[in-house]
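Researcher: Let's try something more involved. This one mixes different molecule types, so please make sure each is placed in the same coordinate frame as the others.
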Amino acid sequence: GSPGELNPPIPSLLSPTVTSEQIEHLHRRFKQLSQDQLTIRKENFDSIPDLEFNPIRGKIVHAFFDKRNLRQASDGLADEINFEDFLTIMSYFRPIEMNMDEEQLDRFRKEKLKFLFHMYDSDHDGKITLQEYRNVVEELLSGNPHLEKESARSIADGAMMEAASICVGQMGPDQVYEGITFEDFLKMWQGIDIETKMHVRFLNMETIAHCY
Amino acid sequence: VLAALAAGAAEARATSEGQLPGAAAMGTGTPPSPSGTAFEETRLHVFTLDYPHVQIPFEITLWILLASLAKIGFHLYHKLPSIVPESCLLILVGLLLGGIIFGADEKSPPVMNSDVFFLYLLPPIVLDAGYFMPTRLFFENFGTIFWYAVVGTLWNAIGIGISLYGICQISAFGLTDITLLQNLLFGSLISAVDPVAVLAVFENIHVNEQLYILVFGESLLNDAITVVLYNLFKSFCQMRTIKVIDIFAGIANFFIVGIGGVLIGILLGFVAAFTTRFTHKIRVIEPLFVFLYSYLSYITAEMFHLSGIMAITACAMTMNKYVEENVSQKSYTTIKYFMKMLSSVSETLIFIFMGVSTVGKNHEWNWAFVSFTLLFCLIWRALGVFVLTQIINVFRTIPLTFKDQFIIAYGGLRGAICFSLVFLLPPAVFPRKKLFITAVIVVIFFTVFIQGITIRPVVEFLDVKRSNKKQPAVSEEIYNRFFDHVKTGIEDVCGHWGHNFWRDKFKKFDNKYLRRLLIRENQPKSSIVSLYKKLEIKHAIEMAESGMISKVPSSGSLSEYHEGKIKPLSPTEMENMREILTKNLYQIRHRTMSYNRHSLAADASEKQAKEILIRRRHSLRESLRKTNSLSRERPVLA
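Model: All components are placed in one shared frame. Result:
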C-alpha cells in the first residue's frame, strides 16, 4: 500500500487501550479483506471461509455497515467502510482495562451492549419486537436441519415472555408488551458481565495473516 | 480400618477355642461345638451370639450410620452449618470418638488405613466433583489452573522443603537429623491443596464460579505433581547416590503420570459412552456402567502409578457429555443421586476418621518444627499465588485482582490427602515420622478450622463477587449462543485464532465423528431447544403440583394458531398474538431451589408432565374451534 496508509487516523475511542502494533495488525487484515482497496464492501466478507458456517453471518456482516455502530447516523446502512470505520467496530471488542473506574466501566458495558442490541433490532426502531426476536432465534437454529420452524418460533415466544416478565413484572390483562427496549435489554444482561467476555485479543494474528 | 478390624477379628477367632475350622470357613451360623471328644455333647442352643462372624461389615455399617446421624444432628440447628463448616464439626466428632476409644481401650484407635482412603473413600468424591464440573468454565481457565497446579505446587514444595531444612540446621531445636531430602519430601506432601477440603469449605460460601473453578481445578490437577514429587523424593531418600539422569527421569515421569492418567480417563470415558449406546433394552443397569467404568479408570491409573484423580476426572467429564444423552431420564436421576450419596458418605467418613486417627500415641511434639511448618505453609502459599498471578495476568484476558488472589491463597486448604500420604511414609527411612505426622495434623487442623471458619467473613468483608444462582432462562441461553457466534464471527473477520476457534473446531469434530459413534439416536441437539423443552416440562410440573391447571394456551401452540395464515401478519393478528402473550404472562413462574451439592431439584414423573402439555394444547384447539374468529375476546380461562 501507499506510505500514507501506514499511519491511519486513530479514532479517539481506541487510544490508549489499543497499541500501535495491534493497529498495524488490523490494518494488514483490512488490506487483505479489501484487496488493497481503501474501502470494504459487503462482498469482501465472502472471502472469509470460516465465516460461512456461522449461522448469524448475515447479522455480523450487517453490523459492520450499520450506521448506528459507526456513529454516523441513527439509521441506515453504509455501502462501504474505510479503515477508520473498521477500527470503530473493532473497538467494541477491546478488552477491559485494570485501571478503569466505575463510570468508565459502566459506559464501556453500555457500548458493548448497544452493539449487541443493534444486531437484534434489525429495523432500527429502537425496540426488539417479537418478529425480530423470532428472526434471531430462527437464524441461530438454522444450522440444525432437523428442527422445525414451529419449535424455533415457540422458543422465541417463550423467551419473549420471560423478557417481559423480567422487565415489566406482572402485567394487567389489557397491557400489551411492545418490545424490548434498550433499558429492558440492559436489565436482562445485568447478571452477565459482558465487559469481561466481549473482547478479542488482537495478539496472535501474525501467523494467520500469512495463511490467506 | 479394614486391616485393623480384620486383625482384631482374626485375633478373636484364634482365641475363642472349640470352633471347627470347617464351620468358620463355611461361614455358617452353626453354634460352635467342641472339637476332639465326642462324649461331651452340648445341648442345642436356643439363642447364640456370634459377633466375630459379622464384625467387619457390622462395624463398617455402624461407622457409616454414625457419620450420617452426625450430619443430621448438625442440620437440626440450622444456623450451625453456616457458621462452622461441616468438616470441622465432623472432625470434632471424630476426636470425641477417638478419645472414647482411647480412654476405654488404652490403645490407639484404628488409624485410617491409607489404602482404604485412596482406594475406597477418595474416588467417589472426585467422581462427583468431576461429573458436575462446569466444563466450559474449566477449559476457559485451563491455562491458569494448570499454571497454579504445576508451578504453584512445585514452588510450594521446594520452598517449604528448603526453608524447613534451614530451620533444622539450627541445633537448638534438636532437628539436625532430618536430611534435606526428607524435608523436601515433607514439603511435597504438605503443599498439595486438597480437593475434599476445598469442596467442603467453598461449598457454603458461594463465591463466583471463576474463583471456585480456579481453586478447585488447582486442587484436582495438582495430584499429578504431588504423586510424582512424593514418589521421586521417597525413592531418592532410599537411594544412596542420586545422578542427574534420575532428575530427568523425574521430569519425564511427571509428563507420563499426568498425560497417562488423563488418557486412561478419556479412553474409558469413551468406552462407557459406547457401552451405554446399547443399553436401551436393559435400562436398569445403566447407572452401574457409569460407576464401574469411572472406578476402573481410577484403579487402572493407580496400578501404573499414574494420577488416579486426573484419570477419574477426565473419565467423568468425558462420560458426562455423551452418557447423558444415551441413558433414560430415570437412570440419569439415579446416577446423580447415587453419586451424591456416595460422595457425601465418603467425605463424612474421611473427616471423622481424621479426627479419630488424631488421638493416639503416634505423635511427637516439637514446637519449632510444627510452628515453622505452619508458618512456611502460609508464607509460601501467599508468595506463590502473588508471584504466579503477576506472571499469568499478562496472558489472561480477565486479569485477577488482589481480592481474587487473596481468596485463592486463603483457599489453599490441606486435607486428607496429605494426612494419608504422611502415614504411608516408611518408618525405617523416616525415624522422625511421628514428628511429621504431628506437623501435618496441626497444619490440616489450622486450615480446616481457622481458615474454614473465617473464610466466610473474609469473603463478605472483601466483598468478593458471589455467584448468582438464577433460574436458567431460555432467553439467557439464546443470548449466550448468539454471543458466542458473534465473537467467533468477529474473530474470523480479524483472523484471530482464539478460544472460540478451537472450541468450534472441536464441536465440528465432535458432531462429525464422536457423536455418531457414541450416541444412539444422533440428532444434533441444540442446547436452546433442549433447555426450552426442559423448562416447559418443569413449568408444567410446577403448575400441576400447585393445582393451577388452566386452559390458558401455552406458547407452544401459538404457532399452530397461526398456521396457514398469509404473511405478512395483519395488524389484528399481531394484536391477538400480543393478547395471547400477555395472557400467558399471568402465570407466575415458580422458582425452584438453587442447585446445591447436597440436594437435587425435585423430580416428578415425566408422563404426568407430558399429559399436562398435551391437555393444554388440546384445550386451546378446542377453544379456538369454538370461537373460530380473530375476535378480541379472551380465550377461555379456567
